[in-house]
Design a protein that fits this description.
There is one protein chain. By secondary structure, this protein is α/β, with parallel strands linked by helices. Among the domains are: 279 residues, Alpha-Beta Barrel (TIM Barrel), CATH 3.20.20; 109 residues, no CATH class. Helix content is 33%, strand content 18%. It is built from 21 helices and 22 strands. Strands 1, 2, 3, 4, 5, 18, 19, 20 and 21 form a nine-stranded mixed sheet that branches. Strand 1 and strand 2 form a beta hairpin. Helix 7 crosses helix 8 and helix 10 runs parallel beside helix 12. It is globular and about 80 Å long. The structure holds zinc ion. The site of zinc ion has 5 residues, from loops.
């Protein structure tokens, strides 16, 4: 059974679309057979109760809130009524009754947030409450990003039905596809492998994937030519799937990488989502700031290309330590890289290439910006930079000289060279690797990108195991950080615009029809929060802290966070993509591991 809000059903032409604004074209409500009032959805449905036989009693009635409906319009005072999983009325609902009345006086009522860039994947099987997302206002996610997804999309989506709090859509990953046909190796696909890869993408789309994702800094996708990606994405695009890309470069070659993503969109006749749009501060200085990168995207839009962006609101990024190693070492897969790096000649070759990459091209003096978030082999390194770990190693090698506690600048106490730090990276890699946090960006670019109207808010996070490791705080605080520090304190954007970036805009980009607005007929994904106190608490030092200020989170008409407490209900489930064949597949019984 599905939860009844699949995308496929809602992509039919709808007369409503022809008379309302661009934003609403893609958000035209589904035409469910079970709910007669939704079929009479009209332009005046926004502020008046649905006229056809209003029920005597609603399931939930949110009263007297500041309604921020997700469109970007200014807030208004009103009530929101929910029945059978849908919003059935928004406006002044007089003496209407409900099983549960929630007084939202002094609070904001908004659509549940839609996070289109996550890495939740099969972690939802183990941590189905996904509390880090719910307590940050998220009710719907897109996973399978950066080229890494589950392989069996049908089994995955079926498994989630009423077994998680969140509504979940997934992309099919390019790297996942390549790994299945040729492993983690460099080199073009053979014609037979290409046919096999296309079949994987085709099946994923008919099983319900929402599009195709790439992660072009990761192996093996980084070795794929643009043409190869175009050929594969043509399959997903043929079913109406979006192209979501972690670009080939987010540093010195970023403009080229943007051009590549745009070309893939043009040549596949597909819309494009550029993931976690950002700019390191050294590159910003070189190319003229975020105006230059945003300008590239705006020019494409002006030329008629549909392209969207998303962003997490932090000055540090996070990914695997493997991305610090030279491409040439990784070219024949992880096992081979380990073989190379276990010889002195291989290490020397790696160090030579790393010098070129970090010292010559980027002018790096140390790895104080690169902090270990978690490492199975070295749990005590969590929270320490590569610079600091190199210092600790050197100090203990020197007979237990004083260990440093914190270092983002080289310290005279225990001077280490770049070579010491390269060796530290290689050693950690050989012993199992690490998840990293990279402090490379500046507030200026984060703010310039956030202000752009094309940019939605997305966490780039997985499901967090509370207390485990020192992961990037974005998994806990992304939305609250925008609503507190950026909206309320710095007044960078308006509250209504921030909500739009978290709701109707991502719904439009990913064609999640019937979600992302507070409108009669829409899925009852709703958040209630206090705009005066909402804020993130998670920091880089202490990331395991939930956001504050959300009092109620409602998913498909069921309350999952109530009075700040999780109810344990799991009303979430699959959102099927535009190519879905309508058949719910056999649900997954094992938990696949995924990586970008
Ligand atoms: Zn990514």
């Amino acid at each position: 059974m599905t939860n009844g809000f699949d995308v496929a059903r809602a992509t039919r032409p709808c007369w409503y679309a022809s008379i309302v604004s661009f934003l609403l074209v893609a958000s035209c409500a589904p035409q469910p057979t079970a709910r007669p009032q939704a079929t009479s959805l009209a332009a005046d449905a926004l502020l008046t109760p649905v006229p056809t036989a209003p029920p005597a009693k609603y399931d939930i009635l949110l009263r007297n809130g500041k309604v921020i409906d997700g469109s970007g319009n200014p807030w208004f005072y009103g009530d929101v009524a929910i029945l059978d999983g849908r919003i059935v009325a928004v406006g002044s609902l007089g003496n209407a009754k409900a099983d549960r009345v929630i007084d939202a006086t002094g609070l904001a009522i908004a659509p549940g947030f839609i996070d289109v860039h996550t890495h939740a994947d099969a972690d939802l099987y183990r941590i189905p409450l996904a509390e880090n997302f719910i307590r940050d206002g998220v009710t719907t996610i897109v996973t399978g990003n950066c080229g890494g997804s589950v392989l069996d999309v049908g089994a995955y989506l079926a498994r989630l039905d009423h077994r998680t709090t969140l509504n979940v859509a997934t992309l099919i990953g390019h790297n996942t596809t390549l790994r299945e046909v040729k492993g983690d190796k460099a080199g073009e696909l053979t014609p037979e492998q290409m046919a096999e890869a296309k079949e994987i993408v085709r099946k994923a789309m008919t099983d319900g994937a929402i599009g195709f994702s790439t992660g072009l800094i990761y192996i093996p996708g980084q070795w794929s030519s643009t043409e190869e990606i175009i050929e594969l994405h043509k399959i997903a695009a043929g079913y109406g799937g979006i192209y979501a890309s972690h670009m080939r470069n987010e540093g010195g070659e970023i403009l080229k990488a943007i051009d590549e993503a745009l070309r893939i969109g043009r040549e596949t006749n597909s819309r494009v989502e550029i993931s976690h749009f950002k700019l390191p501060s050294d590159i910003a200085q070189r190319i003229g700031g975020a105006d230059t990168t945003l300008g590239r995207v705006i020019a494409a839009r002006n030329a008629g290309q549909e392209v969207w962006l998303d962003q997490y609101p932090y000055t540090a990024s996070s990914t695997s330590l493997t991305t610090l190693l030279p491409d040439s070492i990784l070219a024949d897969g992880g096992d081979n890289a380990k073989k190379i790096l276990s010889t002195p000649e291989g290490v020397a070759r790696a160090i030579k290439e790393m010098r070129e990459q970090y010292e010559v091209k980027r002018g790096r003096k140390h790895f104080g910006y690169a902090v270990i978030a978690g490492s199975r082999a070295f749990p005590t390194y969590a929270g320490k930079s590569i610079l600091e770990v190199a210092q600790i190693r050197k100090a203990s090698a020197n007979g237990g000289a004083e260990l440093l506690t914190s270092a983002t600048q080289p310290s005279s106490a225990t001077d280490v060279t770049m070579e010491d730090q390269y060796r530290t990276i290689i050693d950690i890699y050989l012993k199992g690797g690490a998840q990293m946090v990279f402090h490379t960006m500046a507030e200026q670019e984060v703010m310039d990108i956030m202000k752009n109207p094309l940019v939605s808010i997305a966490s780039d996070s997985g499901v967090r195991q509370f207390g485990s490791g020192v992961p990037h705080p974005r998994g806990y605080g992304t939305n609250a950080r925008v609503l507190g520090p950026y909206v309320r304190e710095q007044k960078l954007i308006t509250l209504e615009d921030a909500i739009r970036k978290m709701t109707s805009m991502p719904a439009t980009a990913f064609r999640m029809n019937g979600r992302g607005l507070l409108r009669a007929g829409y899925a009852a994904d709703v958040v209630v929060f206090d705009p005066k106190t909402v804020t993130d608490k998670a920091t880089f030092d202490k990331p395991h802290q939930y956001s504050e200020g959300f009092t109620q989170v409602i998913v498909n008409g069921d309350i999952v966070l109530d009075g700040g407490k999780m109810t344990g209900d799991m009303p979430g489930g699959p959102i099927y993509g535009p190519g879905w064949d309508g058949v719910v597949k056999k649900r997954a019984t094992t938990e696949p591991t995924t990586r970008p």
